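Consortium newsletter contribution from the modelling node. Members have asked for a concrete example of what our holo predictions look like. Here is one, prepared for the 2'-deoxy-thymidine-beta-L-rhamnose complex that several groups have been discussing at recent meetings.
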Amino acid sequence: MRWDLFCRVIDNFGDAGVAWRLARQLQAEQGADVRLILDDIATLARLDHRVSPDADVQTVGDITVVRWGGALGAVADVVVETFACEAPAEYVEAMAERSPAPAWINLEYLSAEDWVGRCHRLPSPHPRHALTRHFFFPGFGPETGGLLREQGLLAARDAFRDDPAARNRFWRELSLSAPAAEERVVSLFGYDTVQVHDLFDVWTASAQPVRCLIPDGTPLALRAAHHARRASDSHSAMLGSLTLAWIPFRDQVDYDPLLWVADFNFVRGEDSFVRAQWAAKPMAWHIYPQSGDAHRIKLEAFLEKYLAGLEPPIAQRVHDLFLAWNGEGHLGEAWNALSGDWPLWATHARLWAGRLAAAPDLVSNLADFVQKLL
Ligand code: TRH
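And here is the predicted structure:
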């Protein structure tokens, strides 16, 4: 089957990140013939070094990547608009001419809110054409489309955990020594609005050494460099008990080992947020800021699900860290308040990942749904 995925990058990496992950899994697991029509190829090239930012059409890993705006030729069997991006009008006209009509999907942003389950798979007839778009919502429950999770991901995660040689390779490739047994490793990926300075101060004064891995080229890398007065040619800085290590921005396929090697992951947006949950480590999510505090409702909806099953006192402390990571409250104090909770939270993170893994993944659900439409 031929799938055309349309993606417009609003900003950051996640729009392209989710679309690329979807494309790769459809091709690898469904044997789909996939075309990704994307406006911002340069962003995709940041996520996969095989992509040429200048090419209008290219094949990367058996996926055809087309710059939005070029001639698209024949309409595919399945048309997916990611994040409600609206396929080009002339393409929709061609869809209306096609017989049989293609399956037409709008893949929405991920949310843990309850209304998602009521809107998932709803049809939306086109006002003029004999075409029906169907809404497909990722989510956390059986009434939703589920989460992106490629086959073999969790086995690869566990193999890495159980393989000291793989972990040593990870550190060697970064020209970093393996962390000491008591050293806590943290990955830091968030938006520029986070006040990380008080967190760095708490880690600097910490009884336990902390190694903070910061992907270069991200806003927090600059803040950390300013905080540590990073010398231009240095890749790390020592501040008391804290080691700040600036690491290269990784290909998307290499992002997971960063999450697996860490004891704690600060993440953001949508895709790193999901990947951190699969990594089954304690985490904090910086939700993409939206107008009118809509993001705050989404954050609370996730926390309500994520914190269920944790004892109230620790649940409150985890909640406070999430809020502080989203700019509400003192990040350093919230971190310190959890000092006795790490083993319990680590167990909870593993149970959470296991619960999510019991549900079918998004691509399996999407492929089943599309089969019924065609
Ligand atoms: O970059 P983001 O902030 O993207 C956001 C979200 O997609 C959000 O839903 C959307 O509304 C907004 O953009 C416009 O965060 P996200 O979703 O985590 O995407 C980051 C991608 O970058 C993800 O696929 C992981 C990848 N990544 C790497 O490939 N290498 C790296 O080194 C790092 C740090 C991230």
